[in-house]
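Meet our chain:
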Amino acid sequence: MAQDKCAMKVNTDSLILGSWVIPNGAKSVLDIGTGTGILALMMAQKTDDAVHIQAIEVDESAAQQARDNAEMSKWSKRISVHHQALEVYKPKTKFDIIISNPPYFEHSNKPTNAFASQSGARHSARQTGLLSPTALFQFAANNLSTEGSLYCVYPYRRMAEIEQAALMSNLYVTGCLVVKHDSKSDPYLCVYRFQAQRADDANCEIVAESQTEEAYPSLNIRDHQGEYTPEFKALCRPFYLKF
């Protein structure tokens, strides 16, 4: 997969996120901030042949690269990439799955070499300014189908903030995977599934009231020898040729 035109390259977070999605017969899928197009391609692989995946990307170069990657894949007729910001995107249908690996780094409060050296595109791809959690959740709440799901990732340290922001848009955690680099590391990532909780929706179960690591299942990427764990391999095997 080509990624030379994208500020943010294919990473483990996206691979875990896409692998963790359960399609549940989804008929419509949207990838927000598609970047290289990796999540759109993963969703095409995981869904039925009749499912068309929409993908939007605010960066023009990244959007073109996502188109190129889609066109070179076996799912080229099933993926449409739009160079568009979320706030101006007006979908014609509701989505059964909305997926996003959003920019989730807060702006630095003081200048550092790392922030100062970022290119404009990379800075936009990494910082929350162009796609805040509130904007993502409000869009999802307005554009998910009745039993639709929003899948996304955010840092573990922001768990309470993110879950509260989702609640403000009437979205509830119905699945969460806490990710660690290895068993000795602190958690660094939460992979989320959010759904709208409705009184008549018996299939939408809130999995936890408290925001704690123990409330959710966890995944260690590597073992103490630095090798991928069996759990990580099992989750991501459909997308890793070497597994």
Observations:
- The radius of gyration is 17 Å.
- The beta strands are 28-32, 52-57, 79-83, 95-100, 144-155, 171-182, 189-196, 218-222.
- The helical segments are 12-20, 38-46, 60-71, 113-116, 120-126, 133-143, 159-168, 230-236.
